[in-house]
Amino acid sequence: MQERVTMAVLAKALGLSESTVSRALRGDRRIGEATRERVAQIAGELGYRPNPLVSALMSVRKNRSGTGEIGTVALVTDYHGKDGWKTKDVCRWEYEGICRRADEMGYRVEEFAMSDFNYDGHRISKTLAARGIRGVILGFTRERKILSDFPLDAFSVAGLSTYFREVAVNRANFHGFHNVQLALNEIRKLGYRRTGLIVPELNNRVSGYLWSGAALDWQRRLPEDERCNPLVPAAGREEAEFTPWLQREKPDSLLVYKLPARSWLSKSGLRVPDDIHLSYLYRTKDEMNEWPGIDGNLPMVGAAAFDLVIEGLHTNRYGVPSQPKDVLIKGEWRIP
């Protein structure tokens, strides 16, 4: 069977962004006539067919509004005002996915920082209601204020990653268990036999202990002489716990998140990669060009969170669900 030509495939063939192709196919006048005609021509030649679900949702939106105006989905944040999260690669990648999916479906995204409302959830709720905004994504937290006074009954709500984790809503996240085991398997294929996972205690706890759980399950299936227990150091004691762990477990490779393991190894007289292999779990932008590791497909996590909101809007499901669901996006192993 011929593989379905997706919007991404069509955009790549045209050398355009997916949002530009989406607008051109909708006849958006912001896209030049020549470009619209070229997109239509190549779409026909490649056999592109619109996603029926997206087309149906767009039709419902247009019929309900009567005007065809672009709807708004609120992104509620708690990260040092409106600009704090923009310095973080992870947040920017998830936001790109949210906005790309919104554009494909004829919506736009607007941020509502809790600090602008003096952390008063009732004020945010009233503002959204007055604006006619019914869809909410809870994302990007740093200050960890609790949303206990934010009435959600009138909104289709989805949680992004582990942000606002105290709110039991449908949520899109990266697949922590799968990603750790994928990385460990790939490192083993490179010939290493004693791989140790090193992650901060806070991040492991936020993952629901899936990271350490995945590592322990993976180690359990290895011969005893090749097992290497993960290191989950307490906050403030990371380096102090690393050296005795290194001496005790004797890993030949490390899978690391955030912690400066390379610097610690140098202090122990070990060179990377001559003496010990180094890979990263959820690489930052700087690490991507130098080190192997997991690409968490974070734009897809953002897009999935947006999809959950739209699903609620078009099935009239509002408020906190009685049985929340998690949509887990699998990452991919990358080598520079």
Task: Please describe what this structure looks like.
- The chain is α/β, with parallel strands linked by helices and 336 residues long.
- It folds into 3 domains: 1-50, 434 Repressor (Amino-terminal Domain), CATH 1.10.260; 71-175 and 298-331, Response regulator (Rossmann fold, 3-Layer(aba) Sandwich), CATH 3.40.50; 176-295, Rossmann fold.
- It is 42% helix and 16% strand.
- The protein is built from 13 helices and 11 strands.
- The strands form 3 sheets. The chain has a 6-stranded parallel beta sheet, covered by helices on one side. It has a 3-stranded parallel beta sheet with strand order 6-7-8, covered by helices on one side. It has a two-stranded antiparallel sheet with strand order 9-11.
- Helix 5 links the parallel strand 1 (71-78) and strand 2 (107-113).
- Helix 1 packs across helix 2 (18-25) and helix 7 packs across helix 9.
- The protein is globular.
- The relative contact order is 0.13.
